[in-house]
């Protein structure tokens, strides 16, 4: 059966069905709609004011690649300028190749790139890596004179985080997790996630139709992370209820915590001055724990922290471009190659 006409331009043949709406679109109309939706997220949420110098957290992965590309397209309309900031966590066999992709992107798009790091010590646990990378990204952004930081988290990432926080009973993080970003409390730069309402499938499709060059390998430590369980659960939920991802993202915005469950008001870290709900912020507590050889206790995990890391070798589906249950949405998959991210969708 021939593909239907594009429901937007009514000229070209449709190349895909949008996963949420089911609308059949050609590649050009899909990309235009995707960019318009990101523009709407930024403008309606007042995320990036005109004149902002925006540091894009560039990991080389599909999300930050798509984010940088879309913001570069929108920059003249938004009146913002962009800087790519990549953190080198020193993850052997992974980050070097990812950084090579970021360097190619910076050269192709003629965007300034700063590589900040190496974190070196944070190699064996995603919690360490995430917390210290967040700090390094803030430092890198300040170095280049940025006024705002953006990251490529998409709707699936956010829904996974909400699920993880529920599963851990982490009321503090649930309370902080809603919204499209943070306004820059405690002297930190304002941070936002312009792709937070975009589904992972559409991010991959956008990268495909715009022919973006990105690094699609999973971090070597990803199979150990608790996030993989949340991801698997989310896929099951999404197969039964396609709106589950966005419903979870929005639920985090609407949650109201009982007064007794609310985290204490944040103060300043006694060591670095960053926002902290205890004497030390999470990054300083982690470094302190590492120095004392007691990393888990330093972040208040102790026994509970064992949940953080799954048994080695436990196979879970990977990140980003994984097979998703549900209806096929690409009418003419250009690739059946299982090593291609699109082929695996
Ligand atoms: N090493 C890094 N340097 C700079 N920013 C990073 C780095 N790692 C992650 N980020 C930012 O945090 C976001 C979410 O991190 P995550 O771990 O999901 O990234 P990823 O899976 O490596 O790549 P991506 O999310 O870009 O596909 C990224 O989209 C990016 O904006």
From TrEMBL:
Pfam family, one: ATP_bind_3
Residue ranges of the region described as Disordered: 297-345
UniProt-recorded Gene Ontology molecular function terms: ATP binding; transferase activity; tRNA binding
Function: Plays a central role in 2-thiolation of mcm(5)S(2)U at tRNA wobble positions of tRNA(Lys), tRNA(Glu) and tRNA(Gln). Directly binds tRNAs and probably acts by catalyzing adenylation of tRNAs, an intermediate required for 2-thiolation. It is unclear whether it acts as a sulfurtransferase that transfers sulfur from thiocarboxylated URM1 onto the uridine of tRNAs at wobble position.
Superkingdom: Eukaryota
Record GO cellular component, one term: cytosolic tRNA wobble base thiouridylase complex
Entry protein name: Cytoplasmic tRNA adenylyltransferase 1
One Gene Ontology biological process: tRNA wobble position uridine thiolation
Domain tRNA(Ile)-lysidine/2-thiocytidine synthase N-terminal: 54-219
Keyword annotations of the record: ATP-binding, Cytoplasm, Nucleotide-binding, RNA-binding, Transferase, tRNA processing, tRNA-binding
Binding site residues for ATP: 57-59, 63, 87, 152, 157
Species of origin: Cnephaeus nilssonii
Domain Cytoplasmic tRNA 2-thiolation protein 1 C-terminal: 267-297
């Amino acid at each position: 059966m021939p593909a239907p006409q594009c429901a937007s331009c009514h000229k070209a043949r449709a190349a895909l069905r949008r996963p949420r709406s089911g609308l059949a679109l050609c590649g050009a109309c899909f990309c235009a709609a995707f960019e318009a939706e990101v523009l709407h997220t930024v403008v309606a949420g007042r995320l990036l004011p005109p004149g902002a110098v925006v540091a894009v957290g560039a990991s080389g992965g599909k999300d930050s690649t798509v984010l940088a590309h879309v913001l570069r397209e929108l920059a003249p309309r938004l009146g913002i300028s962009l800087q790519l900031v990549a953190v080198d966590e020193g993850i052997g066999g992974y980050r070097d190749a990812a950084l090579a992709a970021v360097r190619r992107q910076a050269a192709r798009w003629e965007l300034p790139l700063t590589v900040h790091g190496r974190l070196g010590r944070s190699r064996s646990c995603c919690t360490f890596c995430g917390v210290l990378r967040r700090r390094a990204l803030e430092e890198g952004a300040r170095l280049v004179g940025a006024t705002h930081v953006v990251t490529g988290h998409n709707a699936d990432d956010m829904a996974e985080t909400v699920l993880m926080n529920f599963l851990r009973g982490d009321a503090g993080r649930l309370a902080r997790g809603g919204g499209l970003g943070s306004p820059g409390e405690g002297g930190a730069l304002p941070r936002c996630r312009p792709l937070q309402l975009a589904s992972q499938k559409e991010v991959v499709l956008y990268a495909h139709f715009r022919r973006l060059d990105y690094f699609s390998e999973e971090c070597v430590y990803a199979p150990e992370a608790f996030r993989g369980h949340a991801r698997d659960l989310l896929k099951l939920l999404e197969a039964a209820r396609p709106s589950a991802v966005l419903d979870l993202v929005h639920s985090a915005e609407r949650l109201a915590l009982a007064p007794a469950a609310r985290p204490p008001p944040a103060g300043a870290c006694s060591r670095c001055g960053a926002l902290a709900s205890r004497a030390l912020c999470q990054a300083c507590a982690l470094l302190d724990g590492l120095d004392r050889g007691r990393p888990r206790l330093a972040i208040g995990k102790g026994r509970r922290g064992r949940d953080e890391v799954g048994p080695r070798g436990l196979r879970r589906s990977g990140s980003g471009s994984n097979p998703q249950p549900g209806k096929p949405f690409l009418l003419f998959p250009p690739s059946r190659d299982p090593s291609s991210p699109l082929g695996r969708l």
